[in-house]
Amino acid sequence: MAASMQLQPAEVYFAQKLAANEKKIRDRAVKKLRKYISVRSQSVGFSEDDMLKIWKGLHYCMWMCDKPLVQEDLADTLSNLLQCFDNNAQAFLFIDAFFQTQCREWFGIDRLRLDKFMMLIRRVIHQCLLMLKIKKWKVTLVKQFLSILEKYVISDSDNAGPDGLKFHLADIYLDELSSVGIDSLKPDVLQIFLEPYCTMMTRCQNKHLVSHVVNRIFKNIIDQSDVGKDEEEDVSEDEGEEENQDTDKAPKLQFDYTTIADKLFDLAKGNNCLSRNRPAIYDLVKRFKDLAAGIFPSDDIIGSSDEDDPISNADFNMAVQRLRKVEKMGIKKKKTKKKRKLEETHEGSEEEPKKKKKKKSKQVVKEDESQINGILDKEPPKKKKNKCKSEQQSKSESNDKNDELEGEGHSTTRKLKNAADNADSFVGGIGESNGVVSTKKDKKREK
């Protein structure tokens, strides 16, 4: 072990042991790391690379941890490492390395491990606020902490950090502020904590993130105000509900509503504010001005009021009658559709055998067509046409020859008869001439 410590830096050694498979090795590494941080931070200090190596090991130490109760204990121990730093610069470097590591590793976290890392982020934010509370909420330290959040989480740029981390921080921001600084936080310090979100709303291009920030931060401030609580009590009394909620758990941060309204108004009228975000910001300005005047703002859209166009009973009754007529018409249409479907099913059942026969004939035709197409694929269509033409021509020529032969038959018979007659006459002439010659020879012999 001593040889390994000499060969490689201590931060790499701790990172390997913190990411071990066995729980005993991880627990020992966390205890040794606590002592190492307290000694190193007082003497030499850590660099940014050293902090990133340490948080890499701590991240995978949390990754390997199983079971909910064990995960809660580990999240507490890891977040409590912040209290080991006596130097403010080293403490903020530790916080910066934590958020940098979470932004880098966020997309590699699966859905089964996401909850414990969100719990770790909440615990670290809690410890950061406790550190600021111990320092008595010094403005310089508060701004230094908020600059880290603006760099990685509360930012309008897409490259700052993942949206999931931004949404999660908006969910826990007011809860952790109220749990740590209910009694000690003053309105001017609370205004400093709200300024990063005010500036983000003016430049953020993600409309879903803007609406989430409005609902989870600014509207929560309105609902948690004294005027908002009085309004909720009146509504619960009118509805006859019993008040079983614990009022001590609700946050009671004291905000200066006029300063919030003025800050939002100044940012909205600037050139850097996006035009599509201005309506939401001006709506918040009006709401905070109403709160400062002691009026609970309603959820209606600005510029619309129910007193201008009240609904009378006659109009209400007419609307009810129209709705009933529409419902009756809808029922009639449904009945007619059902009748048509039943008639079509009966007609279809009668025409099924005919359709089957037609289908068979179609199948036969398709088979014949497939055979013909196969033949056509083997031999080109032009040659077939020539063959057919040649066959037709040969048939027609043979028929023409037969006709010619039949016509010429009569003429040949006549010619043959004439030739026969001529032959007979010629033969007779020859015979006569032979007889003459024979008679002359006979006369010579007699002599």
Structure, described:
It is found in: Nucleus. It is extended and about 150 Å long. The protein is mainly α. It has helices spanning 2-7, 10-18, 23-43, 48-64, 68-79, 88-105, 114-134, 139-152, 163-181, 187-203, 207-223, 226-239, 257-268, 278-292, 313-350, 352-378, 381-446. The chain starts with a helix and ends with a helix. The longest helix has 66 residues, at 381-446. Among the domains are: 8-113; 187-228 and 253-299, no CATH class.
Q: Beta-strand percentage? A: under 5%
Mean pLDDT across the residues is 77
What general form does the structure show? Answer: extended
| Share of helical residues | over 70%
InterPro entries: RRP1 (IPR010301)
Biased composition (Basic residues): 331-340
Keywords: Nucleus, rRNA processing
Pfam families: Nop52
